[in-house]
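User: Before I run my own analysis I want an independent prediction to cross-check against. Here's the chain; please return only the structure tokens and, at the end, one sentence I can use as a sanity check.
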Amino acid sequence: MQSASPTLSGFRSIFRRPSLGLAEIAWRWSFGFAASLLLLLSFEEYLKTLPVSTGDLWRLRSGQPGLISQAILHILQGSAPRVIAALIVLGLAMATAWIGLAALGRAVTLRAVESYFPDDRVSEPGNPRWRLGSLAGLNLLRVAITVAAGLGWLTAWLVASAAASQSDPSPGLAVLMFLAATMLVWLAWSAMNWLLSFATVFVVAGGEDTFGAIASAVHLLGARIGPVLAASTWFGLAHLAAFGLASSAVVFPLVFVGVLPRVVVFSGVLMVTLLYFAVADFLYMGRLAAYVAIVEGLNTISSQAMVPRSGDGRPPAPSTLLESRVDPEELILGDVPQ
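Assistant: Structure tokens:
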């Protein structure tokens, strides 16, 4: 049954259907664990390629900060090209894996959300349900805007560095330019990333292609901007509250750094962090469920608007519909005078 409030429907879905959040956690954490393990192993292999001389070992064991920093700079000298090449290879591999896994995970989770909000329109036999190609296209666009945001941030850093040259040092102006450019880049990236993630609803629910889903998302924003902003705001506030609680709770294990073993303290911090990530994934699925409720509510209103109503607001009888399509004053076969 369609609820009057899509935001309330989204919150209800994550409590009545915990499997929605668990499915989101399954695919997100699987990729996160695999990516973290890959980065850790790559970093270990990189450390094995660094040359360490006897003098470097003596400086590292000296305990003097100046000698240790000299040793580290000498060890890392000339390794920048290898780091850049490794980061490019890892970035391409992880981006490709995320595009495919995110497309499959989003298709599964949105189908589960649709089962919570039944809609005859999306249950038609001819309506495509698995649009992995379109979802992968949206994810590819998300990767592209992320790379563009990174390049924009790097450009802002270079421009700010050029503004504070040695001949005319202006550190305050350079910092202000960098912060302003970073804020603009972040806002643009956030808006585009949100729109592309919102468009996934129309790929699965409406069978749209990549650009058709984006157009439908923009059209819905124009038609129902109020409910969309309400759902985004309330779930954003809930996410912010969860972050505040997690930030406060993570301090508690750190208090016992000098009392308990480091493994215990690290385990406590890790548990609080994972709990926060789990709550964030549940809230994300609730927000998607609210968006689906908005879409199906708009479809219901559109379909009801096409059906004529009687004076009391109920659908007219079939005979009334038939009579409304026939002109009673028109002469038909049996009424033609001889």
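Sanity check: The radius of gyration is 29 Å.
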